[in-house]
Amino acid sequence: METLENSELCFPHLLNASCRRPKRSHSEAILIYVLLSSLSLLTVFLNLLVIISISHFRQLQTPTNTLLLSLAVSDFLVGFLMCFQIMLIDGCWLLGDGVCVVYQYLSYIITSSSIGTMVLISVDRYVAICEPMFYSTKITHRRIKVCVALSWFCSSSFQSLNLSDNLQHPGRYNTCLGECIIVINYIAGLADLILTFVGPITVIIVLYTRVFVVAVSHARAMRSQIAAVTLVTVKKSEIKAARTLGVVIVVFLFCVCPFFCVTLVGEQTVLNASSSAFVICLFYLNSCLNPVIYAFFYPWFRKSVKVIVTLKLLQRDSCEANML
């Protein structure tokens, strides 16, 4: 009986201090491990293809694709962080309090920077569709790079301040050994909710609603052949890009909103690995879906993947290849 009880502990040799493992059948545990491991590898591989494509081929290095590159880097890192979540499926954290805090800290940075990138994508599409005459002057490659860098810097700085107590005292809020918990006070949690969710999501919805209305009006005008007379013509490629990125944003919101909704309705802003497993995995799934969306909607991505997989990427001057 004592052996059975000890086998349910994360650290059997520490009877009074160890956390207990959740009861789960062996087949269920194997299935979860296989699914999450496959999702992690697929996420890393697909987003690596996006990163290589945009970084290598000069023709793809446009302002809009620079934003997709930033998003792909976030998704690529999510694929690696998934390895830690896979460990938590067993119900025990075995890597120590320091690694636990770093894991949670990186998760927060990636989440907030991804949302920041989505805001920038919405702004990019808004200018392209609603103010096409000024797009080339307002949206430059250099400005986009600066905005992306600021997005990552602000996310890192804010989350460092937000999680300062946890970073200074790792494991302070753990109730037993084998637990991975961080606690955010009410004011910090409210600020995080407003600055990284409510505010950005509102901006995204408002801008894309305007983009949708203008895109529909342009489409109707082009069908009636009066666009050249009554409207400033928007390129069909820009409208197609807006539609594709709109899909990316909708899928992103669908996968990220549950995480913030759980935080919003919770009595305390406490993130426990076991209680938030579903919403975290849903967020991870989004990182795998983005490259799949590109494959369906962007011919240049399918073409670049073919070049990469066939190793034509190693040929001389391959970066100058026509991908469009």
Automatic annotation (TrEMBL):
GO MF terms, alphabetically ordered: trace-amine receptor activity
Location in the cell: Cell membrane
Lipid bilayer topology: Multi-pass membrane protein
PROSITE patterns: G_PROTEIN_RECEP_F1_1, G_PROTEIN_RECEP_F1_2
Name the record gives this protein: Trace amine-associated receptor 13c-like
PANTHER family linked to this entry: HISTAMINE RECEPTOR-RELATED G-PROTEIN COUPLED RECEPTOR, TRACE AMINE ASSOCIATED RECEPTOR 19P-RELATED
Name of one Pfam family that matches: 7tm_1
